[in-house]
Amino acid sequence: MSLAQWDQLVLDGTEKTPLYKQISERIEQWVQEGRLKPGTRLPSERRLAEILKVSRMTITLANEDMKAKGIVRSQQGSGTYIMRSARSERVEGSTVWQHHFTYQLGSMSDEMEEIMRYGLDPHLIHLAGVGTAPEVHPGIELSQCFSEHLRKNPILLQLPAPTQGYEPLIMDVRKWLYDREIEANPREIMIVSGAMQGLDLISRLFLGPGDYVIMEDPGFLAASDAFTATGAKILRITLDQEGIRIDSLENLLMQFPVKFIYLNPTFHNPTGITMSLKRRKRLLELAKKYKVLIVEDDPSSLLYYGKKPVPSLKSLDEDNNVIYLQSFSKYLFPSLRVAVLVAPEGIVSHLVKIKQRIDLHSHNLTQIAVHAYLSEGRLEDHIEKLRQAYRGRLDLVHDVISRNANLRCHIPEGGVFLWCKLPCSLSAERLLDLAIQKGVSFVPGNWLSGVGLYENRMRLAFTHPSVDLLKRGLEVMNEIIAEHHAGQSC
Amino acid sequence: MSLAQWDQLVLDGTEKTPLYKQISERIEQWVQEGRLKPGTRLPSERRLAEILKVSRMTITLANEDMKAKGIVRSQQGSGTYIMRSARSERVEGSTVWQHHFTYQLGSMSDEMEEIMRYGLDPHLIHLAGVGTAPEVHPGIELSQCFSEHLRKNPILLQLPAPTQGYEPLIMDVRKWLYDREIEANPREIMIVSGAMQGLDLISRLFLGPGDYVIMEDPGFLAASDAFTATGAKILRITLDQEGIRIDSLENLLMQFPVKFIYLNPTFHNPTGITMSLKRRKRLLELAKKYKVLIVEDDPSSLLYYGKKPVPSLKSLDEDNNVIYLQSFSKYLFPSLRVAVLVAPEGIVSHLVKIKQRIDLHSHNLTQIAVHAYLSEGRLEDHIEKLRQAYRGRLDLVHDVISRNANLRCHIPEGGVFLWCKLPCSLSAERLLDLAIQKGVSFVPGNWLSGVGLYENRMRLAFTHPSVDLLKRGLEVMNEIIAEHHAGQSC
User: Fold this and answer.
1) How many angstroms separate the CA atoms of B485 and B404, rounded?
2) Which of A161, A347, A360 has the CB atom closest to B97's CB atom?
3) What's the whole-model pTM score?
4) Is 3.90.1150.10 the CATH number for B111-136+380-484?
5) How far apart are CA A115 and CA B187, in angstroms?
6) Chain B: nearest CA to A209, how far in angstroms?
7) Does the domain formed by A139-376 have CATH 3.40.640.10?
């Protein structure tokens, strides 16, 4: 609901019920009436206090009261939200079950859900999450070549599926990797249900309370969630123009028993930075020296808009210290959930053991579809189409952004994200509140930090909406920044 | 390799190397030459001692030596196997990574892998695991109606997919459940990648070290693996003709802080027993009294061959204490990996949070395919076809089995398993060794027990092979039992 509507939350000063209780009860009532939808973000305490003409403390108390009743939840740096199932939490006695829970729910950020919610909201121009540009979406082509493939081999769906993956797809992938200087034998490759499942499997195999992982700051939100869910601690390192700061890295490796270093070295999410060849080699030396694994997440290295990026860590690794994750989400589409994990045999064999107990194997139907598509060599052509489409989009972005002196975005050499600087006087979360009201979503920089940095940064994904909507979305940003802030970019 | 070949493992009594070392080294050599395939089961110590004409102790020492080198692994009640990746375990320095592992690999049985391996071996008549009978396999029909569906709605694959599941499929499922007296609102339903993922999610949300789960003995192997992987303990209860023994159940509920009771009350795997209505009601009373959840696994209640079974626990539950798992694997085919989880909203909302961090959501392609199939009402007709086909198969089973006085199988009123008694003088594992050599696989009863029962029982799945192969497989069993054993069934 828009800010304006909050002033309809009428309070009665003469009532015996304290004001904070009245607020809490009205909001609960609105939720039950469906007037406030689950997931709605409440205005900040400060602003709600202004709107309702009460003290900040009253709002704080009201929020505490609603939290206790399970009507809202709040999250550091993310705001306060109406709970997904406020009513049921109490009516259905699931409070009984709440204290049966052992999963470290506390360790989970709400930002991921928030970003997914934006993606599902048809009224929003979705610059928060990644999707395949409609003008080059391969869905129809893929499903057509899939059904042709099935007509030719009707027996396919009757074959059992190995946990490690559909064998013909593993063979496609092996060749695909070979063309990228990664030599893997079939027992070093497994198919996972998206890179996220790969990270979950790796986390389960290696991590537990008391373990440490190193990752970039800012970095991939879903990865840090997967790591912390095990009880492990994350050590964050910032980046310079050559990638993760190597001096700080060795420093930490000397101090902490680190299980692995998680990196996105090529067209890094969100900064777009690509690690230099020199630093890649140094990193591999350190991995060898300190006997620590590297988990290389490589979702978009083929989406380069200038020259090809430097070789992957996996292709440079001579000591088998790298676990390599290659998702097809950025090349095909995210909802497909097919990714590849490459690791030493002794690790893959154990990850397969775990996956077998998690979901037996990834869906056959999808694996056969991707195989049908890959085996006909269509993926290369498709990726070339993507590069062209995204180059065009980046030119558009450049045109629109350059009109705004208060918004400075790094136009990346590859990948799917823009990393932008806002005026010091404007926090990205404040801008998000305003943008959402005007129908545009993005990710505030501080959501991607484990140490509270990047309050004045934002991540814009430029691949999901249509070109027109992308243009409109960026213009909306310009308007908001122009209206509200004349300050210099921070 | 067949038993005969083991005598080619020649030992040299004059050599300085002790005999156990010689054995270990020869076997390692055979593995490296590819002469022994990963997953091969070694003969029992007793029998290998006979073949090689050495003492039992020599074999024990050889096995210990090979285990230490990572050449073989052995599992209580299952035997000793060549490791999946014996070579790599050492060559690729993954021994370094081994002691980085935190996942409780020790808690995982090898039986699941063994059963899957049988399913993937084209030379075996697979009576160990479940599949859809080729004569009624819906794969082709399903993929055709899927591609028609996509042609009509080409936009489908471009839609983002919610973690909770593809909404139209959730709506199909809601109606589907309603027809089975289960009333669920859409927020109480989620789509999971097979019932196994449902069990994994439930285990992660509720279980940790020090927790207790109650389940049937014998019971579903993958379920006990999912539970123990969290560090939780399983309390096992045997069944009588009305299902799980309710007296022992209350006894345990009084003594232990049980998180949930996991049950397969209709056409139980493996015994085929269906819990009586009286006991279902009593069970629900106990769940309420002791504030314990019930997890009802219901994979095959629509595969009844006589009268319809009694209503599900979920449909009888008035206090919202039941989490219901309905897999489509037995109705469509296992490799599809689509199942439904129904639970109180407050639980589903948390399971969705966890799933989001595990694989974001289940594959869109498959969910759309199942929706296309369900929405056209084809599933009902298909299940009727399955019933007819499986009735016919059970008549065949009856004919073949009844010729053998030493093999007594319970012909079930529904489901996909036969539970058979062998002569006391013949253990199911011994029979399995002999059957594998003759190209037939099944599951020994003790693999399904957590307390070492059912050594002379076996589970036969009658749905996977063609009718001819099923007949042949059963006849092979008859032959082996006739040749080797005249004893009474145990």
Assistant:
1) 11
2) A347
3) 0.79
4) yes
5) 20
6) 10
7) yes
